[in-house]
Each structure stands twice: as structure tokens, then as C-alpha cells.
Amino acid sequence: LLDTYHAERHPVGARTLSTIEAQALLLFGGPEVEPVRALLTELIGHEPVRAHLAAAIGGLDVHYDGVGARLPHSTELLRAGRGLLLGPTAVPSGGVPHAFAEHWTLVRPDGHVVWADPSDPPPQEVLARWFGPPTT
User: In this structure, what CATH number is given to the domain that contains residue 106?
Assistant: First the structure.
């Protein structure tokens, strides 16, 4: 995670700061932002706009190439801030879709799937990359 953190997460952080700045301007700006407030009020009346804004504010609009999909319904499972390894012997819980329990799935601490295989558990090098070297 640390090797790719800056390249993957820095743009996300920059976008988050930009979103916060826009919200602050809307909230604390003077009469000069009133036309923008009026337009935004009108746009928020549309479900796709609300969904887009909610995803952007919540960081759920982040997508990565390759495996990179976000594991749905995984907030509770990732609360400890560690990666997660799901396998065919795992019992689906917390709303994790059964499809993810049918094969081996490795999930980063930020909820994105980094490795999946329907037959075999991740090789040691994959586990070491995302979880660190094994301890005894």
C-alpha cells in the first residue's frame, strides 16, 4: 500500500480538499456566490446529482484500474484499518455479497479489492505486499 499510496491517493486527497473549499465558499461566501447557491439548489433536486455529490463527499467515487473495485458493504469489516482476506471458507457477514465469499479476495484497508482468484489463496508474495512479512 505504501509503495503506491502517493500516486493513488494524493489526487483523491487534492479533490477532497477542493470539495471542502467549494463547500466553505457556498456556506460562508457573501452575496457574490448567491447565483451559484441558487443553481446548486435547483440541481440538487435531481437524484443523479444528489448521488454524484454524495459519492464525491463520501469518497465513494474513487475507482482504480484493474481489480480496483471497492468491496461493497465492507465498512464494518474494515473498521480496524487493516487489509482483509476473504476466502471460500469465510461465512458472509455484515452484508458482504456472497460472490466475494465464493473465491479468495484480498481487500486493501481503504476497501478496494487488490487481488481475487476463484481457486487458490493469494501467493505469499501477494500477502506480503499488502500485509507485510509473516510473523511467527
Answer: 3.40.30.120
